[in-house]
């Protein structure tokens, strides 16, 4: 691509924040260690120096308070970006997000909207143990009134933030912790923003639909490469938006391939994978040549030990075997 | 050892699909036993053996489409020692027929609910495939893969018969007949009044299930007349006529939805009318269900084509090779007729013999019609 640049996911997030702060004076960033420390994942390094303490605000360890403050600021006409260190800690702010941010438009009869963006890290893989490693995206994807997105590529990390800020309703952006060091291309040109309301087909295929999002995308693409050597053609769907789900893209793919394998780092019980499986059953039952397969995390708190952490979460060999099962090989 | 090969079940058959083995290696075989089922253009045909012995070895897997003459099995005769293992001559399969895995490694119970995936079910229904004919994979499941391996899906079906294939078979046989056989036609109008009157009295006497259709005495009368006037009953093989001792009347049976089959009704000349009626009912049911025996497709020595039900007055039929004659019968209808010098109303039907002029002459056909007319005047003797 002409003019495209290769940068890390972390840099893409930082550039996106920088662009938003430059473009719109109503935008400010708020969260634990986002200012002086530069963000616990280093996404806001240098922003304090450029934009000052009024717009890059370090907060106390008080998720409920600063998320609530963000909701108030949004109601007051600002465009706040709230960073929560990990999805585990966001549970402290669950009341603010579910009972306030998601409901106010409906409870006010459309008089108020909450144009709030909440970013948070999610997922396992860095040996951060059971209180920093979970994938609870589905808890939020369950709730009407908010949008939930999961940029899985560097280009999406760069382009989704501005679109989320333009949305009149709360948008939660899940950044998988294992992606920050990943490199990828962002296109050249002025406009880097991307829509946030649809899935993307990351690889065309004919034999099986591999449906995933976020941190699992690269594993699924690696599995698809391996399967291609066996002559199995996998179509890889990156959901991008977890709420609302792009049902049409999923069903069209399954109608074509007749098989679906869903890869979701959440726990299997009550998972997003379960919801997608149900949608396929409702919308494409007669297209199925095999039951929908799910590759999810083991039903344990994510372990600290490296080998156990790997064993507890979806990996390439498990995805490959699920596809072989679906192909009856 | 005797080779058992894919039989030719008619002039028009080039290949057949082995559907299933009904005998397994080691089974005792008797002449006339049904050994296998083969799917042809005329439906699923039960294939009989013509030797006593033991089934030594089968050489073909169900589901494969095989040309006529392909070795299907080896039969060890009575008293023969079991042979050394034969070199497994791979059957000459046609390329479009991938050999399916050994059938039913994990065989589901026949009565068990078949495991078919929703996608395969939808496609099977859309293609009009009979799910019962599909062979599951080694895991016992019918998926899209098994459908892809099934014989090409037919477009229209009635019972077990593929009507498109049936049309092609009729086209091939009739075109060959008209191309090769110099047909002549001889007709005669016969007074059917004695037969019709006798039959209605006879049927009044019989309980409803045993009543006889008017086609039955016509079959018997034709068979008897063919015995009395030899020359029309047999086959034209390798340039000469080979007569048959008994009359196996091929009876044209129309299929719902089009096409027809004329299976052999053996013993047409010897059985009682009641027995012929039973055989005919059985044949009609099995023709329409697509389940005939191989001998019934090949054995007919002459054919009767009866279009009386369709109010046709005269039928000029086309010979089914390698037979040498076919008899067409029009409707029985009341018409003016002169009897003993007086005009009277009689029930009449026109019979036409189409003959193969290579094998016989019009004079024989005319003599046959004369004898037939006489036989039909004394129906009680049938």
CATH homologous superfamily name of the largest domain in chain B? Chloramphenicol acetyltransferase-like domain
State the oligomer. heterodimer
Count of the domains of chain B: 3
Largest sheet of chain A: 7 strands, mixed
- Supply the CATH class of the largest domain in chain B: Alpha Beta
Largest interface: A-B, 8 and 12 residues
Would you tell me the structural class of the helices and strands of chain A? alpha/beta
Strand content of chain B: 25-35%
| CATH topology label of the largest domain in chain A | Rossmann fold
Low-confidence stretches of chain A: none
| Beta fraction of chain A | 15-25%
CATH-defined fold name of the largest domain in chain B:
Chloramphenicol Acetyltransferase
Please identify which CATH superfamily of the largest domain in chain A we are dealing with: Thiamin diphosphate (ThDP)-binding fold, Pyr/PP domains
Shape category of chain A: globular
Question: What features would you describe in this structure?
Answer:
The complex is a heterodimer of chains A (329) and B (382). Chain A is an alpha/beta fold. Chain A is 36% helix and 21% strand. A seven-stranded mixed β-sheet of chain A has the order 3-2-4-5-7-6-12, with helices on both faces. A five-stranded mixed β-sheet of chain A has the order 9-11-10-13-14, sandwiched between helices. The longest helix of chain A is centred in the N-terminal third of the chain and has 15 residues, at 9-23. Chain A is globular and about 60 Å long. The model of chain A has no long low-confidence stretch (mean pLDDT 97). By secondary structure, chain B is of the alpha+beta class. Chain B has three domains: 2-76, Beta Barrel (OB fold (Dihydrolipoamide Acetyltransferase, E2P)), CATH 2.40.50.100; 102-150, no CATH class; 164-381, Chloramphenicol acetyltransferase-like domain (Chloramphenicol Acetyltransferase). In chain B, the strands form seven sheets. In chain B, strands 13, 16, 19, 21, 22, 23 and 24 form a seven-stranded mixed β-sheet that branches. In chain B, strand 14 and strand 15 (240-243) form a beta hairpin. In chain B, helix 5 (215-228) packs across helix 8 (362-375). Mean pLDDT of chain B is 83; it is low at 85-111 and 154-158. The chains are: A alpha/beta (329), B alpha+beta (382). Chains A and B meet through loops of A and helix 1 of B.
């Amino acid at each position: 691509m002409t003019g495209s640049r290769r940068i890390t996911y972390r840099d893409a997030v930082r550039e996106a924040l920088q662009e938003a702060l430059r473009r719109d004076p109503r935008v400010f960033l708020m969260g634990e260690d986002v200012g002086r420390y530069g963000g616990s994942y280093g996404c806001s390094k240098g922003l304090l120096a450029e934009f000052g303490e009024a717009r890059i605000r370090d907060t106390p360890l008080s998720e409920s308070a600063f998320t609530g403050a963000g909701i108030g600021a949004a109601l007051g006409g600002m465009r706040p970006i709230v960073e929560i260190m990990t999805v585990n800690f966001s549970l402290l702010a669950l009341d603010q997000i579910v009972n306030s941010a998601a409901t106010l438009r409906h409870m006010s009869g459309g008089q108020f909207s909450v144009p709030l963006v909440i970013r948070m890290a999610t997922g396992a893989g860095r040996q951060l143990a059971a209180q920093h490693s979970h994938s609870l995206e589905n808890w939020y994807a369950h709730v009407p009134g908010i949008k939930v997105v999961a940029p899985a590529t560097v280009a999406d990390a760069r382009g989704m933030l501005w679109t989320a800020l333009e949305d009149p309703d709360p948008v939660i952006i899940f950044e998988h912790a294992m992606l920050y060091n990943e490199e990828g291309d962002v296109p050249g040109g002025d406009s880097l923003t991307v829509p946030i309301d649809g899935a993307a087909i990351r690889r065309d295929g004919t034999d099986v639909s591999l449906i995933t999002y976020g941190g699992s995308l690269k594993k699924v693409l690696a599995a698809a490469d391996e399967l291609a050597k066996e002559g199995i053609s996998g179509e890889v769907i990156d959901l991008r938006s977890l709420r609302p789900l792009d049902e049409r893209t999923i069903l069209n793919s399954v109608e074509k391939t007749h098989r679906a394998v869903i890869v979701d780092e959440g726990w299997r019980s009550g998972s997003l994978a379960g919801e997608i499986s149900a949608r396929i059953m409702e919308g494409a039952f007669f297209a199925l040549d095999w039951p929908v397969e799910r590759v999810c995390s083991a039903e344990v708190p994510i372990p600290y030990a490296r080998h156990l952490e790997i064993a507890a979460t979806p990996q390439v060999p498990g995805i490959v075997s699920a596809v072989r099962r679906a192909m009856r090989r | 050892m005797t080779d058992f090969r894919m039989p030719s079940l008619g002039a028009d058959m080039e290949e057949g699909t082995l559907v299933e083995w009904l005998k397994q290696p080691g089974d005792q075989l008797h002449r006339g036993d049904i050994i296998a089922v083969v799917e042809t253009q005329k439906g699923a045909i039960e294939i009989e053996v013509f030797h006593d012995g033991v089934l030594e070895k089968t050489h073909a897997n169900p589901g494969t489409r095989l040309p006529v003459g392909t070795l299907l099995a080896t039969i060890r005769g009575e008293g023969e020692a079991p042979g050394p293992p034969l070199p497994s001559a791979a059957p000459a399969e046609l390329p479009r027929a991938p050999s399916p895995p050994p059938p039913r490694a994990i065989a589901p119970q026949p009565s068990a609910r078949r495991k078919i995936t929703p996608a395969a079910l939808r496609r099977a229904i859309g293609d009009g495939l009979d799910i019962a004919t599909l062979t599951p994979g080694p895991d016992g499941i019918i998926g899209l893969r098994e459908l892809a391996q099934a014989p090409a899906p037919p477009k229209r079906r009635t019972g077990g018969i593929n009507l498109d294939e049936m049309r092609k078979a009729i086209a091939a046989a009739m075109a060959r007949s008209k191309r090769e056989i110099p047909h002549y036609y001889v007709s005669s109008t016969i007074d059917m009044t004695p037969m019709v009157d006798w039959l209605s009295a006879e049927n009044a006497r019989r309980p409803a299930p045993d009543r006889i259709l008017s086609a039955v005495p016509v079959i018997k009368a034709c068979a008897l007349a063919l015995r009395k006037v030899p020359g029309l009953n047999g086959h034209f093989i390798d340039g000469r006529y080979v007569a048959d001792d008994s009359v196996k009347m091929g009876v044209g049976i129309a299929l719902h939805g089009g096409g027809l089959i004329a299976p052999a009704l053996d013993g047409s000349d010897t059985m009682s009318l009641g027995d012929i009626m039973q055989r005919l009912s059985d044949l009609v049911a099995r023709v329409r269900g697509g389940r005939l025996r191989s001998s019934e497709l090949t054995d007919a020595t002459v054919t009767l084509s009866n279009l009386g039900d369709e109010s046709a007055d005269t039928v000029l039929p086309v010979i089914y090779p390698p037979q040498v004659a076919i008899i067409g019968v029009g409707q029985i209808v009341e018409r003016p007729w002169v009897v003993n010098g007086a005009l009277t109303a009689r029930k009449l039907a026109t019979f036409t013999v189409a003959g193969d002029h290579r094998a016989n002459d019009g004079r024989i056909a005319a003599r046959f019609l004369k004898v037939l007319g006489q036989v039909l005047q004394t129906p009680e003797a049938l």
